[in-house]
Amino acid sequence: MTQSQEFLKQQLSSSELGDRLKALNQSRGLPDADRFELVCIAGVDPSARVRYDALSQMSSLGQQNPAKAKQILWAALLNLEEEIDVRAAAADSIGALKLDGAFEILNESYHQTNEWLLAMSIVAALGELGDRRSFDLLSLALENENTLIKIAAVGALGDLGDQRAIDLLVSLAEQPEWEVRHRIAQSLTALVLQAEDENKDKSRVIATLQKLSQDESQPVATAATDFLAQLNR
After folding, report:
1. Diameter over CA atoms, the chain
2. How far does the chain reach from its first CA to its final CA, in angstroms?
3. What's the CA gap between 228 and 26, in Å, rounded?
4. Residue 145: pLDDT band by 50, 70, 90 thresholds?
């Protein structure tokens, strides 16, 4: 049975962490407008676990009140939040909601952090945001020594749809990490499929995928073969 919004609001004021976590979980059964109000309360909870859950839910609820969502997410990302995983959740939601000023705050936060988890979340969020101004930052992230950030950057460039990324990704197709090569095959295919007209780089992408289809890593070879089939339909 779904609990009422008023009861769950009271539970979010409980001194017991378990009560607050349970209330936030039970709020998922409420209408989005009611859930959003509770998530806003939980977004500034004393517990990082509660804040993380709340800010993660904001990605699907923030459109209920974009101005309020922006206020909470901006505060979490701009060094007011001590826990990196909570800040990363805020970055994810900012990208998903595509709020005004999202590129500027994500760009600023990326250049200010030394935390790989937050940097990776920002990179992924920029891909989801779809703002072409992200191209330079994502290109820079390709050079990061952290493999997870590099993978996120490759994926984000594919999501972004900026055809300039083809040159970058083709040049990286022999990266030592198989996970990077796998994501490169995926993003190159996405970029060609997103092109609004006949892509002059399609033949280069196909040649790169043909090479990757013979990759020593089976997941890479299989993925590249499947992507080739998509492009040759």
Report:
1. 62
2. 50
3. 45
4. very high
Tokens describing residue 103: 């590129």
Write down the residue that tokens 């101005």 correspond to.
67
Residues 6+ away with beta carbon under 8 Å from 30:
2, 5, 8, 38
For residue 46, how many C-alpha atoms fall within 13 Å in the half-sphere facing its CB? Answer: 8
Report the distance separating Cα 69 and Cα 80, nearest Å.
15
CA distances (Å), origin 119, targets 115, 154, 165, 200: 6, 14, 20, 33
Q: What digits encode the pLDDT tens for the residues 47-78?
A: 999 999 999 999 999 999 999 999 999 999 98
Signed CA dihedral, 230, 132, 82, 116: sign only: positive
3-state secondary structure (DSSP) of residue 15: coil
pLDDT of 1 strictly over 50: no
The single residue listed with the structure tokens 């539970």 is: 11
* 3-class SS of residue 216: coil
Residue ranges of E strands in the chain? none
Distance between CA atoms of 79 and 17, rounded to whole angstroms? 24
Return the amino acid letter for 52.
Y
Can you read off the two tokens belonging to residue 177?
A: 């990490």
Q: Are 204 and 162 in contact (CB under 8 A)?
A: no
Q: For 77-121, give the DSSP string.
A: IIII---HHHHHHHHHHHHHHT-TTHHHHHHHHHHH---HHHHHH
Nearest to 189 by CA among 139, 151, 223: 223
Of 83, 79, 35, 92, the closest CA to residue 61 belongs to: 35
